[in-house]
Amino acid sequence: MKLFVDTGDIEEVRKAAEWGVLDGVTTNPTLIAKSGAGFRETVLKICDLVPGGAISAEVVATSYDEMLREAMEIHSGHDQIVVKVPLIRDGVRLVKTLSDKGIRTNVTLVFSVTQAMLAAKAGATYISNFVGRVDDLSGEGMAAVAETVEMVERYGYDSEVLVASVRHPMHVVESLRAGAHVATMPFKVMDSLFNHPLTDSGLQRFLDDWNAAGLEIFEKSRV
Ligand code: G3P
Q1: pTM for this prediction
Q2: How many structural domains comprise the chain?
Q3: Which of 13, 26, 165, 187 to probe ligand 1 with, by most ligand atoms within 8 A of CB?
Q4: Domain assignment of residue 170, yes or no
Q5: What is the pLDDT of residues 18-57, one digit of tens each?
Q6: Average per-residue pLDDT for the chain
Q7: What residue numbers bound the domain in which 175 lies?
Q8: What's the gap in Å between 157 CA and the centre of ligand 1?
Q9: Residue 22 needs a FRET pair 20 to 30 A away by CA distance; which of 43, 145, 184, 186 works?
Q10: Is 201 domain-assigned?
Q11: Is the CB of 133 under 6 A from ligand 1?
Q12: For residue 175, what is the enclosing H or E element?
């Protein structure tokens, strides 16, 4: 499963990229607004920090013609950029246009398998299925992810199912169980994936035993 970090914060991208397991970055208008810097500047810096990664940047217009203009501008910035488009009627139409031109897209604000089907038929590269926002309303966000993975595989669509609106590590576990292709998550969730108390206590014991025995990796040169 690919791991994306969901942020507009350059320092978070830098730290996550250093771990060597980052496949891309997703942004949205809220995250870019929080970053405190300009849209283009932020997205281009992110591209540089994650060489070869898929970097999603979202249109903000809601009519086809305006979204198309924005999409072409966004796409022209860097070949790593994936144009993020909301799952509205004009958005699906835009995704079809962009996919016919070979431009990669990430369809966002997808909550149901029927919405996902529309995105897949239009040729979306990624289908961003939101889970946390559904769970917040006492729903089961992962149910639509599982249905969407099954739908994409059964019908042979090229789209990758991207689990978005991830709130905690259990959403990552469930993404793996569902066979999702990608999970995007806040930096703090990605950081927490490293944690296990037995790793900490186990490492401490190895080091204590090693030090008590006075051992060294680099032997002192014999003269
Ligand atoms: O970028 C899309 C998504 O991951 C947003 O998550 O936490 O605002 O529901 P959230």
Answers
A1: 0.95
A2: 1
A3: 165
A4: yes
A5: 999 999 999 999 999 999 999 999 999 999 999 999 999 9
A6: 97
A7: 2-195
A8: 24
A9: 145
A10: no
A11: yes
A12: helix 169-178
CATH number at residue 128: 3.20.20.70
Task: Report whether 163 contacts 186 (CB < 8 A).
Answer: no
- Count helices and strands (H / E) in the chain: 11, 8
Cα–Cα dist 34/167, whole Å: 18
Residue 222 pLDDT: 61
Retrieve residue 92's tokens: 């699906």
pLDDT digits (tens, 9 = 90+) for 99-120: 999 999 999 999 999 999 999 9
**Token pair of 93 as six digits:** 């139409």
Q: Which residues, other chains included, contact 144 with Cβ-Cβ below 8 Å and sequence gap of 6+?
A: 110, 111, 112, 113, 116, 129, 131, 134
Any catalytic annotation for residue 84?
yes
pLDDT tens for each residue of 165-222: 999 999 999 999 999 999 999 999 999 999 999 999 999 999 999 999 999 999 877 6
CA distance linking residue 71 with residue 107, whole number of Å: 13
